[in-house]
Specification:
This protein is α+β, with helices and mostly antiparallel strands. It has one domain: Thiol Ester Dehydrase, Chain A (Roll), CATH 3.10.129.10. The chain has 2 helices and 6 strands. Strands 1, 2, 3, 4, 5 and 6 form a 6-stranded antiparallel β-sheet that branches. It is globular and about 45 Å long.
């Protein structure tokens, strides 16, 4: 299958608008999941130059709220692979406009399957961890995948 086309992360910036918030002016969890899923799909496609669909999401950990007017920075990178699947670690941070410092609000693993035009799984390049951090994320992704059955 060859080498991955890119190991670089994808970073998305999204502003939290009034329509994205609940009665407490905090970002809906489902809206954040959608942003994170989009980033996971983009980085998978960048990694393998294939189309991907979401097959599972590890339990997301919502740590803090984001508020109307915040900017959400979402970073996604492929950290695990199997023959057809990319495991993507996604981290979202809120950035206040007054400080522009990132504060993590949610993270988790998204598992994306490469598919052809008829939605059949296709093979992808394989990721090989080479640093301690990459090995740790590989192990965490593998544990999350195993826990899903």
């Amino acid at each position: 299958m060859g080498e991955p086309h890119s190991l670089k992360p994808v970073v998305l910036l999204n502003e939290v608008f009034p329509g994205d918030t609940n009665s407490m002016n905090t970002l809906y969890g489902g809206r954040l999941m959608s942003i994170m899923d989009t980033a996971a799909g983009m980085v998978s496609s960048k990694f393998a130059h294939s189309e991907f669909v979401t097959i599972s999401i590890d339990a997301l950990k919502f740590r803090r709220p984001a508020y109307q007017g915040d900017v959400i920075r979402t970073t996604a990178r492929v950290v695990w692979t199997s023959p057809h699947t990319a495991g993507v670690h996604v981290v979202s941070c809120r950035l206040s406009r007054s400080e522009w410092e990132g504060e993590e609000i949610c993270s988790g693993f998204f598992f994306m399957c490469a598919v052809d035009s008829e939605m059949r799984p296709t093979e992808i390049p394989q990721f090989t961890p080479s640093t301690d951090e990459e090995n740790d994320l590989w192990d965490r992704a593998q544990a999350a995948r195993n826990a899903m059955g």
